[in-house]
Backbone:
């Protein structure tokens, strides 16, 4: 059975960002994969420490109530390839534009997506 320590040691993605609003300056932190697992702190370090505590409690509650816990999103899960169906007219247009630029359709599509 997977326990709190098991999940705490997985490579979850933490997002910590500085915030300036009507309540002042602080840092907001969340775990990307764990919906609702968030915290704040007056410094980056404080927000991180507070988030780890919130994460532990979040996981404990999910385990206690037998609710599934999402696994981390890791880059190894992505090949860099995906298939998109597009209208024939768009395929034709992009192919012509790629040819005019002297690049492959894949290179041209990557260029268009990155803009």
Residues:
């Amino acid at each position: 059975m997977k326990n709190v320590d098991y999940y705490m040691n997985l490579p979850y993605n933490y997002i910590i960002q500085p915030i300036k609003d009507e309540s002042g300056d602080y840092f907001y932190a969340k775990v990307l994969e764990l919906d609702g697992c968030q915290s704040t702190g007056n410094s980056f370090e404080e927000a991180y420490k507070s988030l780890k505590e919130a994460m532990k409690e979040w996981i404990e509650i999910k385990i206690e109530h037998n609710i599934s816990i999402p696994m981390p999103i890791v880059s190894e899960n992505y090949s860099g390839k995906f298939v998109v169906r597009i209208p024939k007219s768009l395929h034709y247009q992009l192919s012509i534009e790629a040819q005019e630029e002297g690049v492959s359709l894949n290179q041209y599509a990557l260029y268009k997506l990155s803009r």
The helical segments are 4-8, 44-64, 88-101, 105-114. The chain has a mean pLDDT of 93. The beta strands are 14-21, 24-31, 38-41.
